[in-house]
Amino acid sequence: MVSLRSTVRRLPDDHPLGALVLAVLVVELAGASGAVFTLRGLSAWYGTLARPAFAPPNWVFGPVWTALFALMGVAVWLVWCRVDDPPPTGRRARIAIAVFAVHFVCNVGWSAAFFGLQSVTLGLAVIALLWASIVVTIGTFDRVDRRAALLLLPYLAWVSFAAYLNYRFWALN
After folding, report:
1. ∠ Cα 70 76 82 (to 5°)
2. What is the architecture, at CATH level 2, of domain 4-50+61-172?
3. pTM of the model
4. Which of 13, 83, 139, 155 is the most buried (most CB within 10 A)?
5. CA nearest to 130, candidates 92, 154, 150, 100
6. In contact, 162 and 60? CB cutoff 8 Å
7. How would you class 72 by CB atoms within 10 Å of its CB: exposed for 0-12, middle for 13-18, buried for 19 or more?
8. For residues 170 and 45, what is the distance between their CA atoms, to the nearest angstrom?
């Protein structure tokens, strides 16, 4: 009898394109879960905040995050493809996937803190953790596949900008 776990682990080898699409889709859906908090606080609360002059219009965030989640999906797929490699690469890949999953909690946590709890201060604290967790994720991905690490650099750049933006919201409000 074939287990679900062994079937999922074989996906990259047996169906690489299907595994890539699945990885991107899972990351996009997980990322979209933060939108629940964003939509809740966007109109009622976010609009009342004093905005920094360089804050992008709200419509920019959806396309940017969609592109970043797609890049994250490709990156995690590249690492996932190495899970069954012999040691030490296979072990490093499993660790990198776990680090990625933990980091994603921080990603969704920022939306929950900033928009869900409507706390600029808590959002600032969470985005600092998110930034650090992205750096750790890049490091663990780099030990498995340099391309995967490089695919996360635009994400790090955007979160760096978002952290500065969050800081400016904190300073203004």
Report:
1. 145
2. Up-down Bundle (1.20)
3. 0.91
4. 155
5. 100
6. no
7. buried
8. 14
Those residues whose C-beta lies under 8 Å from the C-beta of residue 167, and which sit 6 or more positions away, are 124
Average pLDDT over residues 56-83: 96
> Is 145 a residue whose pLDDT tops 70?
yes
Q: Is the peptide bond before 88 cis (omega within 30 degrees of 0)?
A: yes
Rounded CA-CA distance 143/70 in Å is 21
- Return the exposure string of 139-161: e unless at least 16 CB atoms fall within 10 Å of the residue's CB, then b: ebbbbbbeebbebbeebbebbee
Q: Which residues contact 151 (CB under 8 A, 6 or more apart)?
A: 71, 72, 74, 75, 78
pLDDT the model gives residue 11: 62
10, 16, 20, 22 alpha-carbon torsion, rounded to 10°: -50
Per-residue tokens: 60: 């920019």
What residue spans of the chain are helical by DSSP H? Answer: 4-14, 16-32, 35-42, 61-80, 89-111, 120-142, 146-151, 153-172
**Which residue bears the tokens 């990259």?**
12
Angle between helices 35-42 and 89-111 in degrees, nearest 10: 20
CA distance 72 to 65: 10
| Residue partners of 125: CB distance under 8 A and separation at least 6 | 113
